């Protein structure tokens, strides 16, 4: 299918915070209460529209367990957006955010847009991390923030789409070098020839390249 | 240079594989001629010794990333390969002649197989019809139609836009055993090998390579894994001692699970077990969860070099299910069995035996789970080298679209294909793995290559990165039976035969 841009995402965060469920809700619009553990990385994709333009999202969902870190780290490079997820009912997953953020910043390109997500907002009764705390953390570290529920789908679309909007804005502002695929952005194959300002990406119609 | 090798390699191999496909499953004697006890034949992966760090306790200095070996001279590599395999090809001639001689029996095999399959589908239908009203949401899953390639597969089966589907459980068996004569004869052979005062291990491996009958599988697996001694006299005392030893571990270590040092490990295990979907019904039972918690925790703290790594949990399941099958009525699917009805003593036996056999298995693939998972990285690389040689168009297709082998085969290695095929197929697969030297490490690699190539055409039909990845993540294996595994094992064996003598050839990076 044709698209104007392709953005690559990575989803990170502690084990069991709902990364795979968020992705499944976003790509398939369904919730799986028992979701098998993610081993290494798994892949998902969906098309969205921003500013009247078709944008393809390719998303790497990573395993949260520390043991897989050496594998999952290689997926930071080449990602334009990251969803950093914690579980609002488990404070330890919030406490680990700093480590995750350091890891992400160290291994990604400096312009990567990071969306902080407090997931499981449907479990209000078991809430262990206040919304204000999430907001404060995001403010302090320059992230976008949302609370979501993969179960009820609340804010799930928005989380993925707002991240894309931010990336799109950065492209408009000329912050991203869109000719460098390592930034996790690709121009759609049919769009480059019609626009002299957008040189054809290397490899023509072929997908991917690099690690993801 | 041997011209046969130069041009005939793939062609000859295809013939052999095709023939092998036709009867491997039914001719254990042929299959096992192939069983090779010489360890150097499986040396593909064994030469590299890496430092061992706990997966969760990395070394202070980061490991160097992707140590690039200097690129070898291709012509030399091929020359080595030729030298190393030329005798294999001579052997192959005999094999071919032998195969030609048994063509006659193929007809019998085919007709028997057809009869068996027909019987199976009839009894399955009857079985499902009988059970269907009892289960909520298709708990008793019928064989999915062969056309539903997008079902919630034995893997994760997600992220295809096929609408909501409840997670399915796959029956371990499709049907009540219909035992044709051939199967009965096989069972008899097993019984006599197992009943002797001293089980001939080579004989047992030969028999087991092409599949172990359900009735003798628990005992055969315990012997093959090295848990149960070959000597009949020593079996009972050994079992007694090992079971006591395991429960000694629990007494000694299990209380440490809440200590600061170990609580992360235990929490991870606690989180993971209810999320195991291979036998969803079973893993929702508290008694099963607790058994797995103990097995995994004890193993983890006794193996600090790796600790508990996700995926290891899956590896306990086949042992657990097979050992459980000894104690439940043949007609009850283990997945639907309520374990609280079993005596505590029985559950303890199953638990201890599962622990020891899993532990033996893991001994052979420990570097899959140590820091940075070098065993997996090595195997993924070897898989790439292998496929590059046996299926050039497929390899090119993957490369052209920027698909990396690590992206799809990491899970194949980490979970020994358990996420990709139904549990009953894994059990069949392990009959063979346990009959091979280093089956879970070396032979698994060849199996993965055969597995990938099996989908070669379908993968090449996908026109972009996304399509390929999605397909590889949701391979249509939900309906697979033992026969599908048998075919792949025959192909894997051929690959081993071709390549295991040429480890250097494969390890060359290019």
TrEMBL record, chain A:
Compositional bias ranges of the Gly residues kind: 202-212
GO function terms (MF aspect): GTP binding; GTPase activity
CDD domains the record matches: Rab2 (cd01866)
CC per GO annotation: Golgi apparatus
Biological processes per GO annotation: protein transport; vesicle-mediated transport
Cell location: Endomembrane system; Golgi apparatus
Domain of life according to the entry: Eukaryota
Cross-referenced Gene3D superfamilies: P-loop containing nucleotide triphosphate hydrolases
Region of interest: Disordered: 183-212
Coiled-coil intervals, chain numbering: none
Keywords: ER-Golgi transport, Golgi apparatus, GTP-binding, Lipoprotein, Membrane, Nucleotide-binding, Prenylation, Protein transport, Transport
Record-stated family: Belongs to the small GTPase superfamily. Rab family.
Protein name: Ras-related protein Rab-2A
Organism from which the protein derives: Pinctada imbricata (Atlantic pearl-oyster)
UniProtKB/TrEMBL annotation, chain B:
Polar residues: bias regions: 138-150
Comp. bias (Basic and acidic residues): 65-82
Chain spans, region Disordered: 55-86, 123-152
Gene3D superfamilies per record: putative rabgap domain of human tbc1 domain family member 14 like domains, Ypt/Rab-GAP domain of gyp1p, domain 3
Keyword tags: GTPase activation, Phosphoprotein
GO MF terms held by the record: 14-3-3 protein binding; GTPase activator activity
Presence of the UniProt keyword rRNA-binding in the record: no
Domain Rab-GAP TBC: 211-437
Role, per record: May act as a GTPase-activating protein for Rab family protein(s).
Protein name, per record: Rab-GAP TBC domain-containing protein
Species this protein is from: Pinctada imbricata (Atlantic pearl-oyster)
């Amino acid at each position: 299918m044709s698209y104007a841009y392709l953005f690559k995402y990575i989803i990170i965060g502690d084990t069991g915070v709902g990364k795979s469920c968020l992705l499944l809700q976003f790509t398939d619009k369904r919730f799986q209460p028992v979701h098998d553990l993610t081993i290494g990385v798994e892949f998902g994709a969906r098309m969205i529209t921003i500013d009247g333009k078709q944008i393809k999202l390719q998303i790497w969902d990573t395993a949260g367990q520390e043991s897989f870190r050496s594998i999952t780290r290689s997926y930071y490079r080449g990602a334009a957006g990251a969803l950093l997820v914690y579980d609002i009912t488990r404070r330890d997953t919030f406490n680990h955010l700093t480590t995750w953020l350091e890891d992400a910043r160290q291994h990604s390109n400096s312009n990567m847009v990071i969306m902080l997500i407090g997931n499981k907002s449907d479990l209000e009764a078991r809430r262990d991390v206040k919304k204000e705390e999430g907001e404060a953390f995001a403010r302090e570290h320059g992230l976008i923030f949302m609370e979501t529920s993969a179960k009820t789908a609340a804010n799930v679309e928005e989380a993925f789409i707002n991240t894309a909007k931010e990336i799109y804005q950065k492209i408009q502002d000329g912050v991203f070098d869109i000719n460098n695929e390592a930034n996790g952005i690709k121009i759609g194959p049919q769009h480059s020839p019609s626009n002299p300002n957008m040189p054809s990406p290397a490899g023509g119609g072929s997908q991917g390249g690099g690690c993801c | 240079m041997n011209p046969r090798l130069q041009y005939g390699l793939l062609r000859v191999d295809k013939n052999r594989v095709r023939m092998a496909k036709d009867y491997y499953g039914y001719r254990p004697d042929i299959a096992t001629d192939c069983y090779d006890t010489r360890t150097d034949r499986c040396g593909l992966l064994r030469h590299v010794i890496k430092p061992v760090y706990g997966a969760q306790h990395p070394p202070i200095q980061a490991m160097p990333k992707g140590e690039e070996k200097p690129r070898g001279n291709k012509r030399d590599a091929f020359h080595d390969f030729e030298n190393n395999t030329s005798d294999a090809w001579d052997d192959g001639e005999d094999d071919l002649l032998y195969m030609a001689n048994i063509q006659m029996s193929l007809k019998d095999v085919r007709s028997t197989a057809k009869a068996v399959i027909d019987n199976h589908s009839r009894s399955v239908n009857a079985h499902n019809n009988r059970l269907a009203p009892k289960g909520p949401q298709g708990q008793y899953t019928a064989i999915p139609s062969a056309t539903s390639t997008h079902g919630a597969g034995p893997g994760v089966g997600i992220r295809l836009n096929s609408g909501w589907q409840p997670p399915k459980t796959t029956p371990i068996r499709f049907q009540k055993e219909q035992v044709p004569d051939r199967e009965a004869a096989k069972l008899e052979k097993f019984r006599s090998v197992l009943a002797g005062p001293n089980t001939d291990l080579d004989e047992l491996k030969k028999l087991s390579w092409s599949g172990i009958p359900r009735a003798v599988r628990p005992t055969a697996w315990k012997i093959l894994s090295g848990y149960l001694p070959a000597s009949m006299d020593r079996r009972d005392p050994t079992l007694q001692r090992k079971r006591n030893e395991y429960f000694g571990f629990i007494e000694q270590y299990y209380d440490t699970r809440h200590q600061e040092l170990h609580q992360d490990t235990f929490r991870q295990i606690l989180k993971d077990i209810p999320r195991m979907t291979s036998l969803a019904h079973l893993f929702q039972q508290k008694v099963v969860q607790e058994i797995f918690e103990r097995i995994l925790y004890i193993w983890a703290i006794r193996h600090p070099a790796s600790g508990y790594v996700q995926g290891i949990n899956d590896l306990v399941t086949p042992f657990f299910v097979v050992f459980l099958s000894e104690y439940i009525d043949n007609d009850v699917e283990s997945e639907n069995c309520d374990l609280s009805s079993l005596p505590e003593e029985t559950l303890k036996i199953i638990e201890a035996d599962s622990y020891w056999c899993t532990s033996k298995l893991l001994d052979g693939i420990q570097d899959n789970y140590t820091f940075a998972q070098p065993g997996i990285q090595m195997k993924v690389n070897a898989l790439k080298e292998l496929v590059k040689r046996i299926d050039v168009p497929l390899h090119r297709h993957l490369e052209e679209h920027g698909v990396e082998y690590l992206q799809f085969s990491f899970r194949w290695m980490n979970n020994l294909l358990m996420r990709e095929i139904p549990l009953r197929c894994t059990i069949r697969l392990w009959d063979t793995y346990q009959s091979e030297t280093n089956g879970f490490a070396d032979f698994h690699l060849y199996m993965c290559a055969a597995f990938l190539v099996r989908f070669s055409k379908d993968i090449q039909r996908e026109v972009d990165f996304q399509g390929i990845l999605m397909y590889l993540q949701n391979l249509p294996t939900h309906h697979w039976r033992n026969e599908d595994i048998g075919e792949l094992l025959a192909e894997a064996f051929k690959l081993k035969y071709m390549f295991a003598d040429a480890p250097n050839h494969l390890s060359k990076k290019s």
